[in-house]
């Protein structure tokens, strides 16, 4: 290689390096701007959710994130249809909304693990309502802690229940309500996914698989119907202190359900896919950097998850023993 060729190669590498640096700088800048807009600017200029319609329908509305969404939507001026399994808890939550926020409520008792047979009755009870918002929140895990797929208790029944609750509920509730939104040219559907869907999660195989369905379904639906005035938002939180997470204590990394629902609702109109709050978005970035996919699928990682699952199981057993002792 002569001097001219060497200089040409150096020049090419120089420009390639410059373009690469510029690409990553622009990518980083765009990410920072989006994060600022979605999680900080939205705190100041919030979307008025009343513009979507009078009523909001929330599934799994008597505990955890679902209950928090129902209360927050009522606080922001919507009437609420609460759908859940326990009539007692439904009445209690409805009473709280009516007394605290002076909003109308309706309750529908339904067990989402039961399959497709429940939806005609739900559709009948929703007739005549101007439903502006649907929150598909109801979900369940297949075990109290991380577990191998074959170690799930009552696996034959449990697998069907998880699929019915986590997947069928989202698609069927959307099928019931979306046509009326399209007819009016306005509506918001919020589907609760999970950080467990961001990457395949060993020891949460079925749960993470159902949640990636929710993510893909939501993002495709948003593309299909946004031109008709419909917003479909997918919310993928990290750990929130709820019954599903064994009410893990609230911390800088773990949000309460109430705080999370408030922050997540602020992102409506700013992003169709969100972690829900700034701390969870930062955790998502950190997880991608420090726990890449190859590491999550390594034997070492799975062994550590097995140990962690065992420790959680022991703690849960101790709690149950203590609770049983107090009752006696």
UniProtKB/TrEMBL annotation:
InterPro entries: NAD(P)-bd_dom_sf, Sc_DH/Rdtase_CS, SDR_fam, VLCFA-Steroid_DH. Keywords: Lipid biosynthesis, Lipid metabolism, Membrane, NADP, Oxidoreductase, Steroid biosynthesis, Transmembrane, Transmembrane helix. The chain crosses the membrane at residues 12-30. The keyword RNA-binding does not apply. GO terms for biological process: multicellular organismal response to stress; steroid biosynthetic process. Gene3D superfamilies: NAD(P)-binding Rossmann-like Domain. Its main location: endoplasmic reticulum. It is found in: Endoplasmic reticulum. GO terms for molecular function: androstan-3-alpha,17-beta-diol dehydrogenase (NAD+) activity. CDD domains: 17beta-HSD1_like_SDR_c (cd05356). PROSITE patterns: ADH_SHORT. One of its GO terms (cellular component) is endoplasmic reticulum. The keyword Endoplasmic reticulum does not apply. PANTHER family: 20BETA-HYDROXYSTEROID DEHYDROGENASE TYPE 2 (PTHR43899:SF10), RH59310P (PTHR43899). This is Hydroxysteroid (20-beta) dehydrogenase 2. The lineage of its organism: Eukaryota, Metazoa, Chordata, Craniata, Vertebrata.
